[in-house]
């Protein structure tokens, strides 16, 4: 596993395990434990996923079985900024910790900016949690450049992460360039476009060339763009495959060919229109 160093010095794995749209239950708890056993050290969930309890059970089971220590894990959750007040945000963090059964998170994100600037109050609460030593790092998700510019006018803690939809059909060059300038690490959610990318002719051609799966080609694309990536799978064999992307490299020409697939296609909401309803 390769890592990135965030702007506060914290080290984060380049490939993590995502659990978006996986329902609460024993299957998820077992999948999280299996992912850790396979070598994942970064686990990503969110308040709105409604599965923090199962994620926490899987993490604690892995720790109890001696597969990993808590200090070796990088656990992320996100607050659902639906008009929350400063105090409600503080309470939401404590609720996530309680559901996960953990004493702290490694990363806590503002999940969406929304169509107003309420994220400012929410982020100030995250700063308070960070300054009190209750979380190891804080950041944002789905922020465009103007959201970041607005945030940084008042922020006392620069976000370590901006987690965005990123894949060859949505390369987000402006956001990535701005984040690089400000020292904010970009992280990709839904990097495989819910599996839709796996049918792309170019990606299948590259998979054949390198004797890799189409998913591995896309995840390698993320890694070479220095983007943290968090694919989701419940299948143990695919968990292993998704980690096995560090023994080959795409050429500059191939990276450019993948970039050229960009057409602005999204598999998730547009942050400019998303209003939590």
TrEMBL record:
Care to name a GO molecular-function term for this sequence?
Answer: oxidoreductase activity, acting on the CH-OH group of donors, NAD or NADP as acceptor
Annotated positions binding substrate: 111
Sorted keywords for this record are: NADP, Oxidoreductase
Q: In the UniProt entry, which residues are flagged as the active site?
A: 49
Which superkingdom does the taxonomy of this entry point to? Answer: Bacteria
Spell out the InterPro entries in the cross-references: AKR, Aldo/ket_reductase_CS, NAD(P)_OxRdtase_dom_sf, NADP_OxRdtase_dom
Sequence ranges assigned to domain NADP-dependent oxidoreductase in this UniProt record: 26-261
What's this protein's family per the entry?
A: Belongs to the aldo/keto reductase family.
Q: What is this protein called?
A: Aldo/keto reductase
Query: Per the record, where is site Lowers pKa of active site Tyr?
Result: 78
């Amino acid at each position: 596993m390769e890592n990135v160093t965030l702007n506060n010095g914290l080290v984060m794995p380049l490939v993590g395990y995502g659990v978006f749209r996986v329902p609460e239950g024993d299957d998820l708890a077992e999948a999280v434990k299996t992912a850790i056993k396979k070598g994942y050290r970064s686990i990503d969930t969110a308040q709105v996923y409604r599965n923090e309890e199962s994620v926490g059970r899987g993490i604690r089971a892995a720790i109890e079985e001696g597969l990993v220590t808590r200090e070796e894990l990088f656990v992320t959750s996100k607050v659902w900024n639906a008009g929350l007040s400063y105090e409600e945000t503080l309470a939401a963090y404590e609720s996530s910790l309680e559901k996960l059964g953990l004493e702290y998170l490694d990363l806590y994100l503002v999940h969406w900016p929304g169509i107003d600037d309420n994220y400012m109050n929410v982020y100030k609460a995250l700063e308070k949690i960070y300054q009190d030593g209750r979380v190891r790092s804080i950041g944002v998700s789905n922020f465009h450049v103007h959201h970041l510019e607005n945030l940084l006018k008042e922020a006392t803690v620069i976000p370590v992460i901006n987690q965005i939809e990123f894949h060859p059909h949505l390369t987000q060059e402006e956001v990535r360039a701005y984040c690089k300038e400000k020292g904010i690490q970009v992280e990709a959610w839904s990097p495989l476009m819910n599996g839709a990318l796996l049918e792309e002719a170019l990606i299948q051609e590259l998979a054949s060339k390198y004797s890799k799966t189409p998913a591995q080609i896309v995840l390698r694309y993320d890694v070479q763009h220095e983007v943290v990536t968090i694919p989701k799978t419940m299948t143990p064999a695919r968990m292993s495959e998704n980690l096995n992307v560090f023994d080959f490299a795409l050429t500059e020409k191939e990276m450019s060919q993948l970039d050229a697939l960009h057409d602005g296609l999204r598999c998730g909401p547009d942050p400019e229109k998303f209003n939590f309803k």
